[in-house]
Amino acid sequence: MKLHRFFIEEEIGERKTLEIKTEHLLHQWRNVLRFAVGDKVILFDGKGSDFLCEISALTKNISNLDVLEETKGIIPSKKITLFISLIKRENFELVLEKATELGVSRIVPVIADRSEKKSLNYERALKIVVEASEQSGRTNIPVLGETMTTEEAVDRYKKELSFFAFDPTGSFDYKLTTKSYNLGLLIGPEGGFTPAELEFFAEKEIPIVKLGEQILRAETASIVALSRVMF
Description:
Helix content: 25-40%
CATH topology of the largest domain: Alpha/beta knot
Radius of gyration: 20 Å
Distance between the termini: 30 Å
Number of domains: 2
CATH architecture of the largest domain: 3-Layer(aba) Sandwich
Largest sheet: 7 strands, parallel
Number of strands: 12
Order of helices and strands: EEHEEEEHEHEEHEEHEH
Structural class: alpha/beta
Shape: elongated
CATH class of the largest domain: Alpha Beta
Oligomer: single chain
Low-confidence stretches: none
């Protein structure tokens, strides 16, 4: 039987027993999954390992678990930051989920010139990336960066990352390769990047890449771009 995986914020380390008081976990274990004493779960703390645990006590307010085994888990080897412009909520949430599954290291929400949305529900966004990490088997959680403008994003991370911007005006033949595994992928909103933003990318010597002949939606472009560089 496949075991359920759950992320916990406190570090597990060398501990042999755990005490869980997280309300939403206890509710899910007791009332949704109907766990009982003796059931096993996999816990991870974002540090790179899975821990097989057995429930020794489970009440409304607390659960005690015995740590049975530690297994080194999946941590994506490439360090990819996705700079995704704010788009419609359901589409942005799809990007959060699929980018996490594909192995992105960091997701930075961007307010582009044509962005209709200007804010993000960070609590909900973090819940989505945690659940996607639990489901996909990765043992770390992508960093969710603060919202910033396109120009702020490039200026802040230019020394750290090798940037690529994706736009239908770019080159289809440009190979998404670099000596560095630290990549920054810039995805525009509905309507794409403005001429001013494209000019800014050119000034910063950021390659502009076309993903295909068709015009892709922002969420589709995010998934395709990540697939191109991750695999």
